[in-house]
Amino acid sequence: MNDQSKVALVTGASRGIGKAIARHLAQGGYDVAIGARTITEGEAREHSPTVRKSNLTPLPGSLNSTAAEIEAAGQRALSVYLDLLDRTSLGTAVATVQERWGHIDVLVNNGRYIGPGHMDRFMDAPVELIEKQIQANAISPIYLTKLVLPAMIARGRGIVLNITSGCATMDPPAPIGEGGWGMGYGVSKAAIHRQAGILAKELASTGVLFFNIEPGLIGTERMAIDMAEFGFDASEMTPPDVIGAVAAWLVNSPDAAKLNGQTIDGQRTCRELSLLPGWPIAS
């Protein structure tokens, strides 16, 4: 792998927004390392949002299927096991990409905690589960950023994209079960939301750029399967490709540099710049 190749590492890339970002980065000329827990289709993992029940039904998507889409776009794919609650796996994933491909130009912190406590009301969610959300959604992305930054700074270029959330800056419109979200999710997303602006100031002279992408409601596979009972209708939401197109624009367009440290409204940016042909669908 030559030093001029463009390399990205995307977490949570087995499905949803992460998968869409990996595909669009590949279409934009990046070789993409993809990290998640689900390597092959059909792996069973707990994904019930609530402590009230268990759900081990396999979700659609895997690193293998994402890798196939990257390769179909003419780029190289590298699958790495990555568990946001296992710090050793994070270090191993970054080291593997750096050893195999020499460098990482773009880190996309997209992965997040999946499991009970996410959609439980505060009095019903054990503190241990709120702690897991903060670890996966905030501390682990900070750790990954710390791992990739030294090499980016040494090369004089690099980009860190954090997929944040509107819940980082606003209150829910209603309680959980009526269209709102949980404490752990909101607190953890608020924490990682601060990273881009702070690091953009600290590292302004290094050539490394930092962005938040606020995706809005996106109709992912898990949203369709798990979240209907909490008042969310995935069929009425925006497709993940919208955020994939915005991520590809941020890492490839020279116009994006002026947004360093800022939060980009994913859906509005895609619409205003016409980044995804055919979206939004004309009424």
How would you describe what is shown here?
- With 283 residues, the chain is α/β, with parallel strands linked by helices.
- The protein has helices spanning 16-27, 63-72, 87-101, 127-155, 183-193, 195-202, 221-226, 241-252, 266-273; strands at 7-11, 31-36, 77-81, 106-109, 158-163, 208-214, 263-265.
- The protein has a seven-stranded parallel beta sheet with strand order 3-2-1-4-5-6-7, sandwiched between helices.
- Strand 4, helix 4 (127-155) and strand 5 (158-163) form a beta-alpha-beta unit.
- It is globular, with a radius of gyration of 18 Å.
- The mean pLDDT is 95.
Keywords summarizing the entry:
283 residues; alpha/beta; 7 strands
Outline of the structure:
The chain has 283 residues and is α/β, with parallel strands linked by helices.
Question: How are the SSEs ordered, and which strands pair?
Answer:
Elements: E1 7-11, H1 16-27, E2 31-36, H2 63-72, E3 77-81, H3 87-101, E4 106-109, H4 127-155, E5 158-163, H5 183-193, H6 195-202, E6 208-214, H7 221-226, H8 241-252, E7 263-265, H9 266-273
Helix pairs in contact: 1-2, 1-8, 3-4, 4-5, 8-9
| Class by alpha and beta content | alpha/beta
N- to C-terminal distance: 46 Å
Number of strands: 7
Global shape: globular
* Largest pleated sheet: 7 strands, parallel
Question: What percent strand?
Answer: 5-15%
Instruction: Figure out the total of helices.
Output: 9
Helical residues, percent: 25-40%
Give the C-alpha Rg.
Answer: 18 Å
Low-pLDDT residue intervals, each spanning 5 or more residues: none
Question: What are the secondary-structure elements, in order, as H or E?
Answer: EHEHEHEHEHHEHHEH
Can you list the strand order of the major beta sheet? Answer: 3-2-1-4-5-6-7
